[in-house]
Amino acid sequence: MDRVEIRPARHFKGEFFPPADKSISHRAVILSSLASGRSVVKNFLRAQDTESTMNAFRRLGVGITGEGGTLTINGKGLHGLSEPSDVIDCGNSGTTIRLISGVLSGNPFFSVLTGDDSLRSRPMARVIGPLGMMGAQISARSDNRFPPLAIKGGALRPLRYEMPVASAQVKSSLLLAGLYCEGETEISEPTQSRDHTERMLPAQGADLRTEGLRVFVRGGRELSPMEMEVPGDFSSAAFFIVAALLVPGSEIIARNVGINPTRTGLLRALSMMGAAVEIQNAREMSGEPVADLRCTSPAGLKAVGLTEEIIPSLIDEFPVLCIAAAHAEGFTTIRGAGELRVKESDRIRAMASELKKMGVKVEEYPDGIGIQGAAGLKGAEVDSHGDHRIAMAMAVGALAAEGVTTIRNASAVGISFPSFFDTLARLSS
Ligand code: S3P
């Protein structure tokens, strides 16, 4: 499946359930592993990234069983993990390596974390620095910047830390380390990033509260096991939401989608561009807001100028937002988005280069992108850069292009959405 051909769609119609939320699935395994007793997680995401987290906790001695989307996790308690006898491979997953670093910092044994080529080029100083201030001994390749990481954890001191960049991975890593400290750890961030960890931990009995952009956690309390159901992933639904906006005469309903406001900046951006996505059956599931989303193609999209305040809430939607911008009337700018350069690929460079192949005029900035829309995308041979979200965004671009598009390295979709191309084929005609 490494080369996939996509033809333009005449219609994009139907209903679908997006796969389970990746961020929440990772956290469900991590937090259940640290609880004392048996947790049951339903609608867990089965994909490569979440397999990396499961394998990591198995190596740390946690029993995880289950078929399909239902997992049973026999948590060991905060202090019950055991030293892994081998290196832990976090694959492509930044969430796995950064969150586990926080956990291992509080555990008095030696461990080594590594990952694939992409993960081994992603910045780790952002967790190594503050975890070191708490007392963990962590060293890493290339002057303590890149994986592999070697961690010797132990007794930690509480930390008061202002994160220079909004990042849920860094925030969550430090909160997990904070569970191991006596006293209160305070983490603040410049802009709100996703808050799944802050929602889940108090439900397990952790002493955690938030005040605006500050989160406080007091360690020393054992966590209770959970019974939860994971909502559908907005970031996966986003590809089909944008496809429905671009293919004329479309109508799709995405069912059971998480609409946590820290994740749905794309809906706000699309509304500024003139597209309305209807929110139906809004409800709550395991402490997270969920709904069904109905999307139809609008008369036309117009360009928008986005700046840094909105970026954390649409961080993973940047690639598909670039596709929407390529169809909008006018010149769209997305700035204050330098973090996109250190994701699974340099997503600014990747989108700029792949959109150019499809005939779009693009300007690349150090912290973002400018896209001249409405000139029409032309089918081309494009590449995923080994990045799941680039592969899926280019597939959406291809649906609304003129001519056939070939996507190279398309199997990257297995990181978060293994059935992506099947769902795409089912909804297109
Ligand atoms: C995630 C946080 C975000 C996001 C990533 C998942 C998480 O990363 O891009 O896909 O689960 O906490 P950053 O925290 O580095 O922005």
Please give a structural write-up.
There is one protein chain. This protein is an alpha/beta fold. The protein folds into 2 domains: 3-20 and 231-428, Alpha-beta prism (UDP-n-acetylglucosamine1-carboxyvinyl-transferase, Chain); 22-229, UDP-n-acetylglucosamine1-carboxyvinyl-transferase, Chain (Alpha-beta prism), CATH 3.65.10.10. The chain is built from 13 helices and 23 strands. It has a 4-stranded mixed beta sheet. The protein has a 4-stranded mixed beta sheet with strand order 4-5-3-14, covered by helices on one side. Helix 10 (318-327) links the parallel strand 18 (305-306) and strand 19. Helix 8 packs parallel to helix 12 (388-399). 55% of the residues are buried. The mean pLDDT is 97. The site of shikimate-3-phosphate has 12 residues, from helix 1 and helix 6.
Ligands in the model, by name, code or SMILES, are: shikimate-3-phosphate
Helix and strand composition category: alpha/beta
Helix fraction bin: 25-40%
What is the count of helical runs? 13
Principal-axis shape equals: globular
Spans of at least 5 consecutive residues whose pLDDT stays below 50 are: none
Helix and strand topology:
Blueprint: E1 3-6, E2 13-16, H1 22-34, E3 36-42, H2 48-59, E4 63-65, E5 71-76, E6 88-89, H3 94-105, E7 110-114, H4 125-134, E8 137-140, H5 141-144, E9 146-152, E10 160-162, H6 168-178, E11 184-188, H7 196-203, E12 207-211, E13 214-218, E14 227-229, H8 234-246, E15 251-258, H9 265-272, E16 277-285, E17 288-296, E18 305-306, H10 318-327, E19 331-334, H11 347-357, E20 361-365, E21 368-372, E22 381-383, H12 388-399, E23 405-408, H13 420-427
Parallel strand pairs: 2-15, 3-14, 6-7, 10-11, 18-19, 22-23
Antiparallel strand pairs: 1-23, 3-5, 4-5, 7-9, 8-9, 11-13, 12-13, 15-17, 16-17, 19-21, 20-21
Helix pairs in contact: 1-2, 1-7, 3-6, 4-6, 8-10, 8-12, 10-11, 10-12
Bound molecules: shikimate-3-phosphate.
Shikimate-3-phosphate binds at residues 23, 26, 95, 167-169, 172, 193-194, 315-316, 339.
